[in-house]
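User: Structure please.
Assistant: Input sequence and predicted structure:
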Amino acid sequence: MEELELEEGETVKRLCDFLPSDLRMKIFRAVEEHYKNAAKRSLVTLSLERFVGVELQDIKEDDALNEYFPRILAFALINIPQVREVLKTDFLEEIETLCRDLGISGEGKIVGTRRQKNNPERFMEHIDGKSREIIWYLLRNRYAGIRDLSDLIGASADNEVLTRIREVINPAAKKFLGKEILEFKESGIDESSGKKVVFKWWLKDDLQLTEKKEELLDVFDEGDKIRIIAELPPVVEEKDIKVEVNNDIVKITANTSNGKYERIVPLFFAGEKAIEKTYKNGILEVRLIKKSICLPPRSPRSRRALR
């Protein structure tokens, strides 16, 4: 019987080939710290063990920096925002500086320029994946019942959602945005339908998560699928949106009144095709099937867990 394995993206693997050992170690330490802090908060997060294939504490340091590093890096790029910053400052800018000093940088291009992140971006990067899921859902729908949010994040009890709102989302919003952003209303009016809505959690009416030059983006690993959620500019219309999947790179394009919009989304696994695409209130959600490859048959004795 043929055995299937999900095909990893080649882009992350190629990037790993260029990273020096000290930078690999820095990234691995960041992953360890993230995992330790997530465990302390006792919140549901993406399983690093499921992603990498082994328990984190069972990985030898040498293996972590070599055999397992592409998957560790892929996990970090999606779940740990500071790893992207480390790659920019400790790797990309250093390479650009060296190229500029050697006179081989692109003519007319500004090298080493970094865009300052605004408060909404820092807020979304600070909170965990399940909390971001709640924010994305409310950005699309403006309100939701506690049971809807519980089902959304796979909570074992409604109280987990309440704890997340009161101890994670609203405190982080107050820190980065200056105020809490989720509020419970016994009754409210859905402006899109004019109907009265009772006992729901709402995004505050004056919430501004769109005052930025670059739209928000999130990628979620869902086993044999990948889900991308992206905020698009207000001028984009659903009929103009195109999504192209090229292995581990997804390109989102749209022709708008202001010209062509394009966004590149790197993935940690190769994608086969998009199977679902929805667009509501400026939020695009795309679900992809991961690409699989056939492995040659192996005897029971030689069979081992996929990693």
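The two ends are 20 Å apart (CA to CA).
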